[in-house]
Amino acid sequence: MAEPQLIWFRQDLRLADQAAVAAAASRGPVAAIYVLDDGAAGDWRIGGAQRWWLHHSLTALAADLAKHRIKLILRRGDTVTILAEVAAAIGARTVHALHHYEPFAVAQQAAVAARLDLQLYDGNYLLPPGAVTTGAGARYRIFTPYWRALQTRLPPAPPLPAPQAMTAAPPPNSDRLADWQLLPTRPDWSGGFDVWTPGSAGANAALQIFAGVAHDYDHGRNIPGAALTSRLSPHLHFGEISPAAVWASVSEAAGARAEPFLRELGWRDFAATLLDSFPDSPDHPQRAAFERLAFTDVDSFDGAEALHAWQHGRTGYPIVDAGMRQLWATGWMHNRVRMIAASFLIKHQLIDWRHGARWFWDTLVDADLGSNTLGWQWSMGSGVDSQPFYRIMAPVTQSEKFDAAGRYIRRWVPELAKVSDDAVHAPWLHGGVRGYPPPIVDHAAARARALAAYAAAKD
């Protein structure tokens, strides 16, 4: 009889185009496990919005496995100890998993490999970190040349279907998912999460919808009031669909007009590469000079009030507030507005980018450590590839340009639903609106303060 094989699931919660699943199924009867190990990730354990998604994604994966009479084993605690115990219980010597590149995941993989035969496979990126290098063998630090080099290795291999037949190994005891209490209990939060359908079926449905409009992505990605972005980011983060499957579908649907979106898949790979190259970058700027920048003290009363106003969409700048309220309600924010909101926190309020990164980490359903870090370091200007600090987005100008009719603002800031088009972007210039706050800072004064702080940090 063939030896049982153990599949270790993490952020790769799918059966199709999943190399660890295919390899295990080809060798013998399989058992499948997911371990919730908050201790391994430390301060970067998954946030509240991700926990909601994880609950539903594990439910979907369990149902997919059940079609093959395989039970998803759920355990909570130290991954290395649990994998060793489960492998011994089912008589497996080999653990199959996809390769992950977060610093804690790299350490975890090394610890598992020291105790078990751990077989790691690629599949969560177009190409794994380290696969795309310069002629001298160095890793790229700037996206544009990285993208050019990556394209010479693409398209990825066609995605493979899920194994048609898998044999189950008798599973040991499992936790009950409900006992993990992953779902939010706050009545004022996550009220709009029902717009999402976690799991591989939901991912494929979202891909089909986006394929129909992917030809217009280059225009639509900057219009927050239009439904022209893919909304695939949480599905990709949790590995419910492979980048290769997304690439194939969008390329077929949009042809030459697919390139702007395919470039975003490359940006996701680039984020993973930078995280692997700079494993301390979630907590430290990649340019050391930015450690000297004098930020607002958020432990002071005024600083705490300012951070809270940003977090809950009460800054008085409608485009910023709309984005933060969309995030609070749905666990997601349009990318153009993410850039505006991040720039506002850092440069208008002069609040440390790491407070913003932590807030996004807890409230985004697609919170990915590489992408979240790259986005915030880019906005700060502290990344090896980022916009300059002195490039400060003017929120009213951005609002007028990308939400000209105020459709997005009116959707998420109901206090402004009935104001005129010329007042919706800067209501304080038109007498204000009852119930909506005045601007928390003046744009010109905040810009001058930020540039002065930057100049002092450079000196």
Output the number of helix runs: 19
By CATH, the architecture of the largest domain is named Orthogonal Bundle
Radius of gyration: 23 Å
Number of strands: 5
Proportion in β-strands: 5-15%
Q: What is the highest CATH level, the class of the largest domain?
A: Mainly Alpha
Total domain count: 3
CATH topology of the largest domain: DNA Cyclobutane Dipyrimidine Photolyase, subunit A, domain 3
Strand line-up in the sheet with most strands = 3-2-1-4-5
CATH superfamily of the largest domain: DNA Cyclobutane Dipyrimidine Photolyase, subunit A, domain 3
Helix-strand pattern: EHEHHEHEHEHHHHHHHHHHHHHH
First CA to last CA: what distance?
A: 71 Å
Mean pLDDT: 96
Q: State the helical fraction.
A: 40-55%
Alpha-beta classification: mainly alpha
Q: What are the low-pLDDT stretches, counting only 5+ consecutive residues below 50? A: none
- Principal-axis shape equals globular
Q: Describe the sheet with the most strands.
A: 5 strands, parallel
Write up what this structure looks like:
- The chain is mainly α and about 450 residues long.
- The protein folds into three domains: about 5-125, 3-Layer(aba) Sandwich (Rossmann fold), CATH 3.40.50; about 125-155 and about 200-275, Alpha Horseshoe (Serine Threonine Protein Phosphatase 5, Tetratricopeptide repeat), CATH 1.25.40; about 290-459, DNA Cyclobutane Dipyrimidine Photolyase, subunit A, domain 3 (Orthogonal Bundle), CATH 1.10.579.
- About 45% of the residues lie in helices and about 5% in strands.
- The protein has helices at about 20-25, 40, 50-65, 80-90, 105-115, 145-150, 200-210, 215-220, 235, 245-255, 260-275, 300-310, 320-330, 335-350, 355-365, 370-380, 395-400, 405-410, 445-459, and strands at about 5-10, 30-35, 70-75, 95-100, 115-120.
- It has a five-stranded parallel beta sheet, with helices on both faces.
- Helix 7 packs parallel to helix 10.
- The longest helix is centred in the first third of the chain and has 19 residues, at about 50-65.
- The termini are far apart.
